[in-house]
Amino acid sequence: MEIKLTCQPSYTLAYCFLDAGETILAESGAMAALSAGVSVGAGMGPGGFAKASMRKSLGGESFFMARYTAEVHGAWVALAPKYPGDVEHARIDSSDGLVVQSGSLLGVSPGVSIDVKWAGVRSIAMREGSMVLRLTGDGDVLLASYGGIQKFMLEDSEEMVVDTGHLVAFGEKVRVKVGPLGGVGVAAMSGEGLVAKMTGPGPVYIQTRAETGLRSWLAPTRGHN
To answer: Residue 49 half-sphere exposure, CB side, CA atoms within 13 Å?
Structure first.
């Protein structure tokens, strides 16, 4: 499989070029276009009914995933995220999985397993709640964002701080601790709220915009006179 990203970073399309017999699994509604020679199906995705139910009820993801299989060499599928944003192509293998925020998964190759994982008490205020997606196995992963995506590769014990509304995904070996920036008082005055302290080793993916800002702009809270 060859993946090419176009129109970055605001309105990215991910073109998945497939060899005959190759398959890409995508979130419901993600297909923007496809070529001739692609068969289309739908299923519950990796793990069958049990994992699909968990993804739907706990992770906020689609119960069904679309399955696109090439019948000829070079057939392609173009996938687009639901927000005006970017797409990042990542690969995982047995040495390290990926933890993905709910709503940020666009597609995977069949060798990737998708589980729902409790993020822990300290992560209960992450931008999409206390549940995250845990991706393991060996294959390709397409991550989606609101705005552009930036990837940071942390060395062992290297640290960075990310606003929880901007966090997209991180490696399983990355340690995460969530709390107010500089204490409760500083967080209240700065307007930053909760942040995630990330400690390497491993990748960290952030998005340049936060959905909370979009939602508040579209539906602002009106004060009383």
So the answer is: 0
Query: b/e map of 12-35 (b: 16 or more CB within 10 Å)?
Result: bbbbbbbeeebbbbbbeebbeebe
pLDDT (tens digit per residue) in 98-120 = 999 888 999 999 999 988 876 55
In 10 A of CB 122, how many CB atoms? 15
pTM: 0.82
8-state DSSP, 11: S
How many CB atoms within 10 Å of residue 4? 12
Q: What span, in angstroms and rounded, lies between the C-alpha atoms of 163 and 206?
A: 9
| Tokens, residue 167 | 């966090």
Alpha carbon 10 to its chain centroid, in Å, reads 16
